[in-house]
Amino acid sequence: MSARILIVDDEEIVIRSCRRILSDSAYSVDSAPNGTEALRKVEETEYDLMVLDIMMPGIDGLEVLQQVKERHPDVDVIMVTGLSQIQTAVKAMKLGAFDYLSKPFDPDELKHVVDRALERRRLLQENRNLKTEVGSKYRFENIIGSSAPMQAVFGLIAKCAPTNTTVLITGESGTGKEVIARAIHYNSLRKDAPFVTVDCNTLSENLLESELFGHAKGSFTGAVANKRGMFEIANNGTLFLDEFGNIPLSTQAKLLRVIQEREFRPVGSTVIQKTNVRLVAATNKDLKAMVATGNFREDLYYRINVFPIHAPALRERRDDIPALAFHFLKAFCNELEKPVPEISEAAMSTLVNYDWPGNVRELENTIHRAVILASDKPIHQAHLVNIIDTSPRLDLEVPRTGEDLKRLKKIAREKSVEDVEKLFIQETLRRNASNVTRSAEETGMQRSNFQALMKKYNIRVRDTEYDPDEAEPS
């Protein structure tokens, strides 16, 4: 929707000039010849911006500005003034005007200040929307999952969120452990304080300690200034330690002290600092097994494993796959500004029956790719070729010798080619309303060769999943 702008000036020539200049930018421009009419219009119509003359008979621009800012503070106002009224324009800025223009102004000057005001308004609105979204997106009631395993997770989140208890979230990669952590934070008494994430897998031992505890200037090469650590930044909020099982043993000892004493010392500093953070950790590793092998401190394990929550793998909650798929479908269509298509029954069956080694993250990426491939049309099996190609071949025997391996690799290659050929035929027929002649023409094949492939894979036109919206007109 285009921005609505109200021009307020007692000179008709100025209004016509502003209309002409701004109409090129596709704005919706309205006008008022005096302050009284301007105030009436502002009450009746929602404007994004006013271009307001200061000197007008009756109610002058300053009074209009004051009343507009009192009743509609979100409306930006650009004041228009003569050269002798600069002091008045400065006063208008103090009353809340966005900027001012001196008469006579050139078209580019007006366009520039209008564009700048509307851009600032857009950014402010985005920030408001983001704050609202953050407050709702991570409410655990809105995490998608009606399956029994997810209902159990919701129950645990509800119990632990209002407390300050340390939480350990376990589960495979891609199961949404950070989403659970955020849900805990945004349903806690700390929701207005920072939620800070540290990925313990991406930093070396020295850098991880600096990231967690901060460092003093000159404490090591490259430490050119004091740096605040995440324990300080997250004070009174929640610190989420992702990939917790990858923390080196030496850092584990220092972390244990922070949990026990609620204090830490930045790298290279002699000053002890206090911290009041809630710790939520996540890992895809078996910490108990790591304790048994000496790769994880037992005392830290029991300190962090106070309230465990297990994020189930997607294959353990197949009932949630359709809802998750449609959620991602809608999100990506909105992002790409496309109409939301359907997911065919065959495609949904493929999604539900796939084992998803990458879990929810892999499903999200698969839907993203399918939305791009399908354009504005329904999503079919052929758009899911990435997961079809990676599905395990349960019909192949396990080789026992080198010769068996060569033979079975040949079979696997041939089978992959067959899968591609079969999908090629099915998808082409679907696009062309099961018309064999038109399908052959589209692919550049002779009709007899196209039919030979159909016969090879026993594909009959009545078996083709037909999308009438995608078919070419006869």
What would you say this structure looks like, in words?
It is a single chain. The chain has helices at 12-23, 35-44, 61-71, 86-94, 107-137, 148-160, 177-186, 205-213, 230-233, 249-261, 287-292, 298-304, 321-335, 345-353, 359-374, 385-390, 402-431, 436-443, 447-456; strands at residues 4-8, 28-32, 49-53, 76-81, 99-102, 167-170, 195-199, 214-215, 227-228, 238-242, 263-264, 273-274, 278-283, 307-310. The strands form four sheets. The protein has a five-stranded parallel beta sheet, with helices on both faces. Strands 7-10-13-6-14 form a five-stranded parallel beta sheet. Strand 3 (49-53), helix 3 (61-71) and strand 4 (76-81) form a beta-alpha-beta unit. It has three domains: 4-133, Rossmann fold (3-Layer(aba) Sandwich); 143-312, Rossmann fold; 318-463, Helicase, Ruva Protein, domain 3 (Orthogonal Bundle). The chain has 19 helices and 14 strands. The longest helix is centred in the N-terminal third of the chain and has 31 residues, at 107-137. The protein is of the alpha/beta class and 474 residues long. Helix 13 packs across helix 15. The two termini are 38 Å apart.
